[in-house]
Amino acid sequence: MMDEVDRELLRLTQDGIGLEERPFLHAARRLRISEEEVVARLRRLRQTGVVRRFGTRINPRKAELVANAMVVWSVPSDRIAGIGAVMAESPDVTHCYERRTIPGHWEYNLYTVLHCRDREDAHRRVAALSRATGAVDYRVLFSTEEFKRRPSGRIEPAKEPERLQ
Amino acid sequence: MQLDPRDRVLLQQVQDNFPLDPRPYRVLGEVLGMPEREVMGRLTGLSRRGVIKHIAPILEPGSVGIRASTLVAMRVPEERIHEVAAIVNEYDSVSHNYRRDDDYNLWFTIAAADEEELLGILEEIMRRSMIPPGDILNLPMVRRFKLDVRFRFLAEDDDDGRG
Questions:
Q1: How many pairs of residues across A and B have Cβ atoms under 8 Å apart?
Q2: What is the ipTM for the molecules in this complex?
Q3: Residues B70 and B109 in one domain
Q4: What share of chain B is helix, strand, coil (3-state, %, to 5)?
Q5: Residue B31 belongs to domain spanning
Q6: Residues 37-66, chain A, touching B (beta carbon < 8 A)
């Protein structure tokens, strides 16, 4: 799905392209291919799903979305697919996962994350999700400090990065 | 942080539909009716203010060999939270790490090639942090319904008064 040029291209761009008229020129020169080919390769990687999305990574806290709410829900296992699908449809929800439980100790099996303007806004949106799905057993956990946040899929630096120079 | 209306339009567009073109900022400008210079100037401003981290490809974890992931919750004594968070942050496999206002106050994700590697990292974090197993929840992912970290910059007001 990916050749070595693709891997190097992703490595060169995953930390950000420049804010200049021709932001793909740098990668093109390093890879000794044309800008058109850089763009064509990125388009293909996006089409095949290697690249989930190409665009801005935004810091929600700086974009007026200061409340990060992780909601843990305990829903009946035979209804989780339906409830998960409804929650995933909501534009308020950025992440929605089913996770393993720890029986007798931690029964929450569905996890959603919402980025909201404030806690009141978050509670209002969570209550709407609860009403829409009938899921009533939940806890809202707000983040109070961000220690790390970055994409989980990364191509690690080549062992000898200088070989391209 | 107040965003002006033209910033909002631009943010929505670059988040949802960044043009893959040799001159992407010119294409954006054509779509939005802004000169290329204004597009670059506004994005530079948003970047300086920290609203935008960068413009980049976001990779699908599975396509780069990540087959196992988990969410870990820890009950950490308040006075040790920064120390333990720093240990957790040392691992490249940890992508997110937050303090949350709950009895379980430290929440982080680990993504690895397989379950074995993942458990190895978790065990090392447990050993180094000296948080007892009874104060840790390991919550592996079973199924992903959605992962789409995009935000709405427009029509926010339409939501007011709803719900």
A1: 245
A2: 0.80
A3: yes
A4: 45, 25, 30
A5: 5-48
A6: 38-39, 42-43, 45-46, 49-60, 62-65
